[in-house]
Specification:
Number of helices: 5
CATH topology: Creatine Amidinohydrolase
Largest sheet: 4 strands, antiparallel
Strand content: 15-25%
Shape: globular
Radius of gyration: 20 Å
Helix content: 25-40%
Order of helices and strands: HHHEEEEEHHEEEEEEEEEE
Structural class: alpha+beta
CATH superfamily: Creatinase/methionine aminopeptidase superfamily
Bound molecules: 2-amino-4-trifluoromethylsulfanyl-butyric acid, cobalt (II) ion
Number of domains: 1
Length: 291
């Protein structure tokens, strides 16, 4: 049981200031959105400065691991080779791959090729072929803090059609970011991403979304990329979540591999591309913590 904080009590954030001179007006602002019927973050979703510093450091490791993969990618290598690169670099930098043994996931990274939407499992049987497009999704635990981001790569000579898909994913993230600011809504970002994909003749996967991240691998809120402006959770300084739309050339319908129970494929076999960034809402905009 906890007592409601008094306005003259010390603030919960650890500033040693009185609540009324610290987070009271911030909390009142959130409450006013709630009264208007909006979904608002709980205090757990809003990170403290100390947590943000830790998560930022974790993000730096995640970025360095992806940079390392990027420098070593080549036609003919296997996705198992990518797994080794991720495992070794993460350990070298003092981290732990967050996917390894996560709910039974057997590898240190997700590698999703062509018609695979996400959660591809690295294998020594899968070689990167000329013309493939691949998503490499890395997540790290560093000093107890979680980070998560993914990049899309074109292997060798990729067709104009498939290159365009990869381009549009990158563009859609940029369009979404234009809508990321404190006191806006996650739906503002989701709609911008969805519209950009649709405008280019693509669809956006509805059933898999982004997520809060930092203290745990997957936290509230769940983040949709087919949402509507003015809906979904209020964005508040201190929130950290991923933006990771999966964009399909054909139908948005997907299915999960029945053998491994992880890998997600497009229903029609057409290609899918994804990019994932991790963002912090700041007092005047956002900071990208991993990409
Ligand atoms: N990085 C993926 C995500 O964005 C991780 C999925 S969990 C896994 O959430 F076990 F499949 F790796
Ligand atoms: Co993620």
């Amino acid at each position: 049981m906890s007592k409601k904080i008094g306005r003259n009590d010390l603030c919960y954030c650890g500033s040693q200031k009185k609540y009324k001179n610290c987070h009271a007006s911030f909390d009142d602002k959130i409450t006013s959105f709630k009264i208007q019927g909006h979904e608002v973050p709980t205090r757990e979703i809003i990170k403290t400065p100390e947590q943000i510093d830790g998560i930022r450091e974790s993000g730096k490791v995640n970025i360095a691991v992806l940079d390392h993969v990027e420098q070593n990618l080549k036609v003919g290598m296997t996705t198992e080779d990518i797994d080794q690169l991720v495992y070794q670099k993460t350990i070298e930098l003092g981290g732990i791959p967050a996917t390894l043994n996560y709910e039974g996931f057997p590898k240190s990274v997700c590698t999703s090729i062509n018609n695979q939407v996400c959660h591809g499992i690295p294998s020594e049987k899968v070689h990167l072929l000329d013309g493939d497009i691949i998503n490499v999704d890395v997540s790290t635990i560093y000093k107890g803090y979680f980070s998560d981001s993914s990049r899309m790569y074109c292997i060798g000579n990729v067709s104009e059609e498939n290159k365009r898909l990869v381009e549009v994913v990158k563009e859609s993230i940029a369009k979404g970011l234009e809508q990321v600011k404190p006191w806006g809504f996650l739906g503002d970002m989701g709609q911008a991403i969805h519209e950009h994909a649709l405008k280019n003749g693509y669809t956006v996967v509805q059933d898999i979304g982004g997520h809060g991240v930092g203290i745990h691998f997957h936290e509230e809120p769940w983040v949709s990329f087919v949402s509507k402006s003015g809906t979904e959770m209020l964005m508040v300084p201190g929130m950290i979540f991923t933006i990771e739309p999966m964009i399909n050339q054909g139908t948005d319908e997907i299915f999960v591999d029945e053998e491994n129970n992880w890998t997600v494929y497009t229903e029609d076999g057409k290609f899918s591309a994804q990019q994932e960034i991790m963002v912090l809402i700041t007092d005047d905009g956002y900071e990208i913590l991993a990409y």
